[in-house]
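pls ignore typos typing on phone
4'-deoxy-4'-aminopyridoxal-5'-phosphate + seq
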Amino acid sequence: MSLDTSRFIAEHVDALKPSGIRRFFDLASTMDNVISLGVGEPDFVTPWNVIEASYHSLEQGYTAYTANAGLLELRELISDYLKTTYSVTYRPEDQVIVTVGASQAIDIALRAILNPGDEVIIVEPCFVAYASAVSLAGGVPVSVGTKAKNGFKLQPEELENALTSKTKAIILCNPNNPTGTMLNREELLPIAELVEKHDLLVLSDEIYAELSYEADYVSFSSLPNMQDRTILISGFSKSFAMTGWRLGYAAGPAELIQAMTKIHQYTIMCAPTMAQYGAVEALRSGSASVEHMRKSYRQRRNFVTSAFEEMGLMTNKPGGAFYIFPSIKETGMSSEAFAEALLIEEKVAVVPGSVFGESGEGYIRCSYATSMKQLTEAMKRIKRFVEKQQA
Ligand code: PMP
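k done
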């Protein structure tokens, strides 16, 4: 008889639900000719000069660990970038840490601040990792839903209703995955007031900040009195098409960044050295390639927004990121049934909104980080599928 190894698994890990996105990828990978609007990553290859700089660093023998918090040169560039782009000032020496993707920044930020039972507000529909990251850090995720009729924008009174004496932090993602919603200064200010009134911290996930299409991006940290209450999280995955490099960063109050660095030094040591050299080049030279990608995403956003409108599926025009979140309520199907049938019948992979939280039910997430040719074909197939359901 083989040993039942499952009994060794910690209860809080056993209780985690596997990400609902994976199931669709696994199914799609068994099929030919599938157009995937499922994955949340750029279709661009990392700019060549970034690849070359990383390659060069290896040739020069830079193959050892860096400082725990990352190369000082990279932290200086991150600090300069945040200042020139978002008017927020961070000392590279002790207020910036380079991490293994924004994912690790979120993990160590939560582990650094949460005592068992502390509550963290999660604004749904949201990135699938937040709730699990809070649970793994010993905290309790508390969901606040947003609605399509409000453009999936967090309503301050709904946020305030969810706060308790145990609330320690809010995770805000702006622009948002999966809705593409972007909050402007006027919409962020009342949230900042509540953060101050209730003595909270904000984990501000700004990984899509470079991909804003309508208005200038406002970093949460730049709002009055918010710099001391914000851990700004970002990275290179989306804006520089560097998902596989696994490089991100956090900037925040020195005490919090130092607490995060303690966890980082014992668990990770440092982010990959060759990726850090690539990131140095990305920040030194990056704005032209970022602008090129942003323009292309904007064009695709306009195309998919009109396509869904023409199909009669209600949708908000995304303000940022590379996702659109149209309603499929018009078909009478659940989001999971819709996504599954669309994949099997028309070979288009999308993600059911329900995986992003309860308030995502009735919607699907489509990533438009794929070529116009693929998008045009995908929209044709979705239209045919929707018409069949409504016939
Ligand atoms: N935050 C959000 C909102 C994301 O969508 C993602 C990636 N899908 C991440 C963080 C993680 O990014 P990284 O590759 O830098 O770990």
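The pocket of 4'-deoxy-4'-aminopyridoxal-5'-phosphate is lined by residues 40, 101-103, 127, 173, 177, 205, 207, 235, 237, 243, 248 (CB under 6 Å). The CA atoms of residues 96 and 251 lie 4 Å apart. more later
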